[in-house]
Amino acid sequence: MVALAGGVGAAKLVWGLAREGLGSRLSVVVNTGDDLEAFGLRICPDLDTITYTLAGLSNRAWGWGIEGDTFRCLKALGRLGADTWFGLGDQDLATHLRRTSLLSQGWGLAAVTAHLCEALGVEVSVLPMAEGYTPTLVKTDAGRLHLQEYLVREKCAPRVQGFEYTGVSRQRAGPGVEEAIRDARIVVICPSNPFISVGPILAVPGIRRAVAASRGLVAAVSPIVGGRALKGPAAKMLGELGHPVSAEGVARIYRGLLDVFVLDERDAGSAPAIERLGMRVVVRNTVMDTSGAKRALARALLRLV
Amino acid sequence: MVALAGGVGAAKLVWGLAREGLGSRLSVVVNTGDDLEAFGLRICPDLDTITYTLAGLSNRAWGWGIEGDTFRCLKALGRLGADTWFGLGDQDLATHLRRTSLLSQGWGLAAVTAHLCEALGVEVSVLPMAEGYTPTLVKTDAGRLHLQEYLVREKCAPRVQGFEYTGVSRQRAGPGVEEAIRDARIVVICPSNPFISVGPILAVPGIRRAVAASRGLVAAVSPIVGGRALKGPAAKMLGELGHPVSAEGVARIYRGLLDVFVLDERDAGSAPAIERLGMRVVVRNTVMDTSGAKRALARALLRLV
User: Fold this and answer.
1) Is A72 close to B70, i.e. CB distance below 8 A?
2) The total number of structural domains that make up chain B
3) Mutation test of the interface with chain A: which of B48, B74, B83, B91, choosing the one with the most A Cβ atoms within 10 A?
4) Which residues in chain A have Cβ-Cβ distances shorter than 8 Å to B59?
5) Which one in A13, A96, A267, B139 has a CA-CA gap of 20 to 30 Å to A275?
């Protein structure tokens, strides 16, 4: 199985899939469009959320970082005049330091990620979508912002006008990504933001084509439930960009790519409209607020094949 | 006043001088031959010891780092497969991150140091001996080691055969260094290791010449008291390199450069022999184990001019 993943929502599903025994038979292709260069470090929030979650280290309350982490270094950075709007825990920092150091020694991001996963005992194959630094820019009424400036510093307040996946078109899919998609019996687009999580992945040359050409089933889980995003600005972005703020709005964005759309029970009424887009609809509880719910949704996806 | 400084011993004296009211009239030219590049960061132990001590942040028990610092990031780095023999506190790390980040933006080390000093409220002018990265290598019976490998990783165990001040001869004195020495009424060589702290400073082209040409008094405080170094491997190095393991052994190394040699009371008997080297001897308590002792030694130096 291959999962295309952003951060928190994807991590829950991927955790469920790993717990259902997929282990090394699962490859997670992770968005790196939310990467940030700050404090001289390469920071990969989505990659780290996936890895920390699979390693059992993630801080569930925050939705990022490491459980029980402290912020002594960040506080000291503030005292030294650094901008400290981006949260950086002391243990989390080790990941960014190690990654940056290995990258500067000539390692690729995929190799670094595999190394970090091995050190943390993560069996699932976590694959960056590409090797390069391709930050997503958010075009807003307050100007063009780096995605993390929009998300963290501006707390998603500016009105969104569009996105720019900087440099993505000059990238190739990361090592192993196209092969994993080609060989997968099922490709799952996780319940992640279609614009800032899944969008950049599908914009990497070769990845959308590989998904479209996959002999396996292609399924997406809606990140919108009852007209709201469970986390993050997906609903706000859909609205500001003129899309229906609904599961159907998301299904339309993925039209032509999907065999199956997994809809939350609360949105069962939208099934006929979504089926008219040319995809099968599966209705399940998609709100992964407990371990049981995560594993149940994972099982539902496994039963598709 | 100008002080030529290594780490802990120098920091005590410089602290005393600052407390005696010198403030911005004191320039400290600091060894950067003990700098290390590790974890992708530029680490300047002597510079930081001086700065932290003047800022009232230093950890006196360790002789390096910040009082009350924690090691969560270092521990996490170890979990990720990094070599962790070099201690790196969470707050201390902020200094290295900020320095490395500003250097990579094109700042010079002197400008970075001034910025950090200002942020920490340090009035004394702390001047790196030079702008470049010029690590001291220790030639030993266990091979050529980076100074920090010798000091920290190998705990000074290998037998020393010599030193290599890598790249120093291609450096120029750091901004402000030669001017400060030229204009000083007194240049003090702090009670620091003559080989690995003061040696690299005097090896920077222009600095030894500026000290020799200074119109002010040139004084050194012995780092050897009663045949022992108060801290670090100075006595071991003197012995292994065939020098007398005594204050006189140090005075011989600085011969031709000094007007005054400050000797500890315990070594008063060596005064005649040292005076025969062509320098005046001043006998004082040089063991700066209390705030009072630091300030008293500072006052003794100020009374020289």
Assistant:
1) yes
2) 1
3) B91
4) none
5) A13
Query: Within a domain: residue B150?
Result: no
Assess if residue A74 is contained within a domain: no
CA distance A239 to chain B (A): 39
Domain that holds residue B209: 2-137+167-302
Instruction: Say if the Cβ atoms of A95 and B73 lie within 8 Å.
Output: no
Q: Does B80 touch chain A (CB under 8 A)?
A: yes
Do B37 and B169 touch, CB atoms closer than 8 A?
Answer: no
- Answer whether A186's CB lies under 8 Å from A304's CB: yes
ipTM at complex level: 0.92
Question: Does B73 contact A93 at a Cβ distance shorter than 8 Å?
Answer: yes
Chain B closest-CA separation from residue A69 CA (Å)? 8
The beta-strand segments (E) located in chain B are 2-5, 27-30, 36-38, 41-43, 125-128, 136-140, 143-146, 160-165, 186-189, 217-221, 224-225, 228-229, 260-264, 280-284
Residue A270 lies in a domain: yes
Give the C-alpha separation, B212 to B225, whole Å. Answer: 26
- pLDDT tens digits, one per residue of B1-49: 999 999 999 999 999 999 999 988 999 999 999 999 999 999 999 999 9
Q: Tell me the shortest Cα–Cα distance from B189 to chain A, in angstroms.
A: 29
> Is the overall model pTM greater than 0.90, yes or no?
yes
Nearest to A39 among B79, B82, B97 (CB): B97
The Cα A102–Cα A108 span in angstroms is 8
- What are the two backbone dihedrals, phi and then psi, of residue A81, each rounded to the nearest 5 degrees? 90, 5
Residue B146 lies in a domain: no
Cβ of residue B76 closer than 8 Å to a chain A Cβ: yes
Summarised one tens digit per residue, pLDDT across range B70-126 is 999 999 999 999 999 999 999 999 999 999 999 999 999 999 999 999 999 999 999
